[in-house]
Specification:
The protein is mainly α and about 240 residues long. It has one domain. The protein is built from ten helices and no strands. Helix 6 packs antiparallel against helix 7. The protein starts with a helix and ends with a helix.
Amino acid sequence: MEYRSEISEELEAWERKITRKSSMVSRSAKRIQNRINGVIPERLHSIVTNSIKTMVQGVLVGSTYTVHPPKKNRSLQVRDQQAKELIRKYKRIAATEGAGTGAGGILLGLADFPLLLSIKMKLLFDLASTYGYDAKKIEERVFILTIFQLAFSSDDTRRKSYRKISSWDESLSQIEVRKKYEEHDWKTFQLEYRDYIDLPKLLQMVPGVGAIVGAYVNYHFLDWLGENAINAYRTRMIKEENQTT
């Protein structure tokens, strides 16, 4: 109870951050990006779309990522500490990967999309285990995808994802969940994700500065994903504990 009180302000600050509107600068950048998307060759859209579709299908089918057994009988404080250690590890991995692909110009810059996606998803699978959830279950895999959308999407999708996480016990059945994701609009999904990361990733392809930008940007993205994952699991665990007391 004492630790819950300590982190309550963090959870409130996170909720405000997630539910507020983007700044005017961000909204203006989004309008510009929408126009840019209209002139980008469809082949490039397809590369990113297929990377994200493959990632999501790999999560749902369960054939792509290693699933560790859920860790039991640990306090929320211990889980948070272990989660933060994991995030630090994955931030270093992502920074190294970003520096390597950033140094290679446009072709390796394109390769960074699936590589970075894989790192992000591996982190989320490890965090599920850390917080005591079995990622072999379809509903836990959808929770992982919801955290991903929470971190990297438009204002509207981000708020919808937050509402789902805040009331996870009211989520869809396994059959409905699977059907929903099989019929997902993959191009819209990838556009939201790519729009979120587009400008820094374009800078990553600039010769001379790509390696520095790639390392910094990837480190930042993993940090942001980790923050959202920790608070999503905190919110879920606290609500489940409150329902059983």
